[in-house]
Design goal:
seven-stranded antiparallel beta sheet, mainly beta, Jelly Rolls, 3 domains, disordered N terminus, Elongation Factor Tu (Ef-tu), domain 3, 28 strands, 502 residues
């Protein structure tokens, strides 16, 4: 650019002149400070005087000293030499580092702490200097690496749904339904019945923001009279190690920001709770549904917690609870907006009843959990994962396999034989195994008659890599030959599920 900073301000429009009222004295005061007598031209009775201690006068600062006293009849004035500041822009390249003082920028002292969000920096925009708040620069700095980073919240866009949709969900069968990693949980005597599904979006604000799937709760049986002991919620549970970057329980503990898209039929206050399951602590934040059945984006901030470290490992550390319905046992206190020991009465104060009518729905997507405090204006962008990466992260906790073959051995005349199937992704911990469907055939058929239909009779899980041994019971003739026979089983209609959920 052609110059640094704005055009210099004009201190004097021309060479400044000072007229004196003379008297019988040798000392006068100058209007402007000078380094020495060479900074002025002094005229007495219109005759220019020679400067210097051996001549007519000396000057230093604002003190002018004459070598001989004047009289009241004398005329005297001075001209300040060189006091008209340059009024044109310095030419390009005329100012170099050697012409700047070392303290030109740091003259007020080095920055000792992070700038305030409202502190300003100067940047050049195509040669024009502009002021930029630090909050904007900070947002760019902190989000520049995020698109390639792994999100903290699992399946925030609800794209993975291994279990599929479910109906008839009540307080008696709380569990994981619909999109992976979202658990429906309820304490108390809820009488509502729900359908939980993965919803496909085709319009609305969340769709316009890049989200094509959502978790949907549809009320099929209403619960208009909320019992005191009810606390219904959507949970996502985290391993201790997932949250180490929040430094909880240390002097350097970080704040939390939770953001999400939500659509609900019931307007009013809803509550989200961060629940520390290790130290029995919690912190809550309320948000408002302003318009019925309209996608709204919410950004909630939670304080840092210097108490209660979560520790390391793969056990349950903390969970995020999206309240849906709550009775007086959970709403009669004061909402715990600061970290504190868990108190039921303070968990869901002000919570509306999302299950009050069979017309009610509750939808959520675009959930992200971030380290630090953000607003809607500087929130980091949602980190969309590929479906494959998202699926593999979810399979750490739950995996389903369907339509495959097992290989194993059949023992002698015993109709039970063993096969092995392995998980695609190592589980968080040794999983439990369940199955549905049946084995169609096994080969070779060592008994009489045609190939036999078999059922899976038992699953014994070996370790968290999912080595699972499956017993299959013959429904046809028994093998005629003793010994071990290699077989493979056609399990195209069977489904195996491994679960290591928290």
């Amino acid at each position: 650019m052609s110059y640094i900073g704005n055009s210099p301000a004009l201190k004097y429009a021309s060479f400044a002149v000072q007229h004196f009222t003379t008297s019988a004295t040798t000392g006068y005061t100058l209007d402007n400070a000078v380094t020495n007598e060479n900074g002025i031209a002094l005229f007495i009775n219109n005759v220019r005087q020679q400067p210097g201690s051996s001549y007519a006068y000396t000057a230093s600062g604002t003190t002018l000293t004459l070598s001989a006293a004047t009289t009241s009849s004398d005329t005297m004035y001075c001209v300040f030499i060189g006091k008209a500041v340059q009024t044109v822009n310095p030419p390009a390249g005329s100012v170099a580092a050697s012409q700047l003082n070392d303290d030109a920028i740091s003259g007020q002292g080095a920055l000792g702490a992070e700038p305030a969000d409202t502190d300003e920096f100067l940047v050049s925009d195509a040669g024009t200097l502009k002021r930029v708040d630090y909050s904007y620069i900070k947002g760019i700095t902190q989000t520049s690496f995020l698109p390639s980073a792994q999100p903290i919240f699992y399946n925030g866009d609800a794209n993975v749904s291994q279990r599929g949709d479910s109906t008839g969900i009540t307080n008696a069968n709380s569990g994981y339904y619909g999109p992976d990693r979202y658990k429906f949980n309820e304490d108390g005597t809820m009488t509502a019945v729900l359908s939980i599904s993965q919803e496909t979006l085709t319009s609305g604000n969340a769709f316009d923001d890049g989200f094509e799937r959502a978790l949907k709760y549809d009320v099929t049986t209403a619960d208009a009279s909320v019992a005191a002991d009810i606390y219904a919620r959507i949970e996502q549970r985290f391993e201790k190690g997932d949250l180490s970057l929040f430094k909880k329980g240390t002097s350097n503990a970080e704040t939390y920001t939770l953001a999400f898209w939500v659509k609900a039929t019931v307007t009013g206050t809803n509550v989200v709770e961060l629940q520390d399951q290790v130290n029995t602590r919690h912190c809550c934040a309320a948000y408002t549904i302003s318009s019925t059945d309209t996608w709204e984006h919410k950004v909630l901030n939670f304080a840092a917690d210097t108490s209660g470290a979560l520790g390391a490992g793969n056990g349950l550390g903390m969970q995020v609870n999206f309240a849906l319905q709550a009775g007086t046992n959970y709403t009669s206190g004061t909402l715990a907006t600061a970290w504190a020991a868990s108190t039921d009465a303070n968990r869901a104060v002000g919570q509306v009843n999302n299950f009050s009518s069979t017309s009610n729905n509750f939808h959520i997507t675009g959930v992200q959990l971030e380290v630090g405090t953000y607003t809607s204006s500087d929130l980091p962008p949602f980190r969309h994962e590929s479906y494959g990466a998202n699926l593999r992260r979810c399979q750490r906790y739950y995996e389903t396999q369907t339509g495959f073959y097992w290989f194993g051995f059949q023992s002698g005349t015993n109709v039970t034989h063993n096969s092995m199937a392995s998980c695609k992704v190592e589980k968080r911990a040794t999983p439990s195994g369940t199955y549905s469907g049946s084995v169609v055939n096994y080969y070779p058929n060592t008994g009489g008659g045609n190939d036999e239909t078999n059922d899976i009779t038992a699953i014994t899980v070996g370790d968290k890599n999912g080595s699972t041994f499956v017993g299959m019971q013959s429904e046809g003739g028994a093998p005629t030959d003793a010994g071990y026979w290699p077989i493979y089983a056609d399990a195209r209609n069977a489904v195996l599920n491994w679960s290591a959920e928290l």
